[in-house]
Amino acid sequence: MDENILGIIAGILTSVAMLPQLIKVVKEKNAEDLSWVMLIVLISGLSLWVWYGFLKDELPIILSNSFAVILNITLLSCCLMFGKK
After folding, report:
1. Which of 10, 22, 36, 51 is deepest in the core (most CB within 10 A)?
2. Which domains does the chain have, with CATH numbers?
3. H/E element holding 13?
4. For 25-68, what is each residue's pLDDT tens digit?
5. CB 31, CB 77: distance < 8 Å
């Protein structure tokens, strides 16, 4: 298997992992059980992966982690909007 295809498949799977959580939070408008600290740490790590991808000129790393950053920033925003009152 071509290593770029492998990277793209792995990136897609790991990037969409939080999508069911985001859908649940948006539907229920409830994010009380989410840890905003975990999301900030995750976003930081994913952002570093994006930076690494640019340094190595690796499109699968850049694309998958950029998508994951956007998804998790959206989830963090929901956490702030729908969290504990």
Report:
1. 22
2. 3-82 (1.20.1280.290)
3. helix 3-15
4. 999 999 988 898 999 999 999 999 999 999 999 988 999 999 99
5. no
Q: Torsion-angle region of residue 17: left (phi > 0), alpha (psi -120 to 50) or beta?
A: alpha
Residue 45, phi then psi, degrees to nearest 5:
-65, -45
Residue position matching structure tokens 């925003």: 77
The predicted model scores a pTM of 0.87
Q: Is 57 in a helix, a strand, or coil? A: coil
Tokens of 55: 């340094």
Specify the residue for token string 């009152």: 85
For tokens 């956007």, name the residue. 70
The amino acid sitting at 84 is K
